[in-house]
Amino acid sequence: MKNKLSFLSIPYVIWMALFTVAPIVMVVVYAFTGDAGGFTMENFAEMGSYAKVFTRSFGLSAIATVICLLIGYPAAYFMAGKDFSKNKSLALLILLPMWMNFLLRTYAWMSLLERNGLINKFFAMFGMGPFNMINTNGAVILGMVYNYLPFMILPLYSTMVKIDHSLIEAAQDLGGNLYNVLTKVLIPLSIPGITTGITMVFVPACSTFVISKMLGGDSAFMIGDLIDMQFLGNSYNPHLGSAMSLVLMVLVLLCMSVTNGFADDDSEGLL
Hints:
Elements: H1 2-8, H2 10-31, H3 42-46, H4 51-80, H5 84-95, H6 102-113, H7 118-124, H8 137-160, H9 165-173, H10 178-189, H11 191-207, H12 210-216, H13 223-232, H14 238-270
Helix pairs in contact: 2-14, 4-8, 4-11, 6-12, 8-11, 8-12, 9-10, 11-14, 13-14
């Protein structure tokens, strides 16, 4: 039986080798080689001139992640407190935008935020505007929050729905106010959902290039745009693009390990 199960895992191993391991190996090889094919560290040294792009990318991604958490946490708690039939309807409303193409959703925000868009036309009815909302950092953050908010709500909801509400009631019976119940009971019990949500929002936000290119323009140039330019743009340099991809991968893995470390520490504290 064990040999049969091992045999069934062969397609998975082949798939992982072709579409996961092989691309990573190619990125590593390109990152540490030059046009002549020899070993070099110049690709990483050249990245120093793009420090502002990295800083902007992580800053905007962090802001979008915090906003998603502030919006998603109350929404997930509200969903967890409803009965099953209402839960299905609320979950459907959250998942509905995800069924639409990612590019179309971003295009929709372009038409809303541009100077002749619907939002500026609404303000014009009251003699206000037009406001410059497109091609700004705020527009990029808005696009990130809109596209990645479901990735924050769903893991939070899946964690909160398992919390025994008798613990919250017991804390309230013992005289705990809203702040104490939230910080001493609810948040510690929902740490796994929080860390998962942060990871699922922050990681794709760091590497996005569609949102920043369409809503931010040149004023919100991010790491994803920079890597895309190295492979598909006029400044074609796959070695530099691979080095950037490798550094971004390492930074993302470090962020994930930090968030998982916080989750493990809080879990041990509860035990």
